[in-house]
Amino acid sequence: MKNDILHRLTAARPAHLDPDRPTPSPVREEELAGVMTRPRATRRARATAQPRRVGRPLVSGLALATAMAVAAVLIADTTPEKPGPAPSATSGSGSQVLLAAASHVGQQPAGSGTYWYVEEHLGSLHKVPGRNYSVAVRTEQRYWTAAAKNKQWSQLLDPGARPATKADEAAWKADGSPTSWNLTGETVTYAGKGEIQHDAPGGTADIVTMGDLPLRLLVTLPTDEQALRKRLFTLVDKDYNAPEKILDRIVVDTAVQLATTLPSTPALRAAAYRLLATEPGVRSLGDVKDHTGRTGYAVALPGPYEHAPELRLIFDKSTGMPLGTETVATRGGDGVSRGELLSYTTITSMKWTEEAPPFDTDTKDPGPGSAPVEEPDAEAVR
Fold it and tell me: Which is nearest to 239 in space by CA: 15, 71, 6?
């Protein structure tokens, strides 16, 4: 099982971060410097932990392989604030789009339940060596958070790789429609492996405590964006030995998590949107479609250093709720082109529920094995 997880991490790493390349890129050097600013004990614990949120792109531009080894800071809130009138989200700057989304999301019902359930579909795009097409290495992640008990359950599935675009699909068919591909030393298949692992609290595969903060502190977060930024900075400053500039980026990373999949109240989610609206360089991308075909509007947040991947946040047009994220290359070289999609995360379910996780123990190590044979569908690959 451990090998399966490591294989997925390897497959999800963007090609430009391949450690076998002879000359490290500035991106890799920046990421290494960022990781090394973390407290030594925290780095050691995270390096040996099972990944919680596989493939989640961070606004700081961390590589997917690095991001998977880092547990996100988990935060939530209680007291809602009355939203003001909604700005227009169909035009204007990125800040205006985020403010419009904040107004809409702040009016959503808070909801309640024992578990906060999130299901995400993730993809990382890779060029097939020796071929003229790319495949998306896909992963499904499901997790249940019991905030009151400071516990989390997670489930990771491999649904198989697919040609990344319609053009890639045509090239794949011209190549004889192979059902497996060797990427950076690992083989991924069309069939996939199904469930890779599930992780219950207290098991041998359990990760470190959910983020760096006990969940009992989550209800203390303010819903004013300036106060929220100040509070988050104080909290991360306790756990990270880093210059102020890096701490600021960790605050932004945390705000992105608050804005997307964490069990934030509508008021706190709106505050996270408003915090992000004040970031320099945020810009509107207008109307977009996510990777399930849903229409939303999106903003782009620049990375923390030159040529860092750009993070794009996609929101539902009517509710302001998050639909997903994308990371996009901002320079050419190392096997990627400027503007090329590197990875995506699509949120397919996010709700409070009383339905308990379907497991209460960790997955046993299945040992070596091969994926089942599956014939590809003739229909267009989504």
Answer: 71
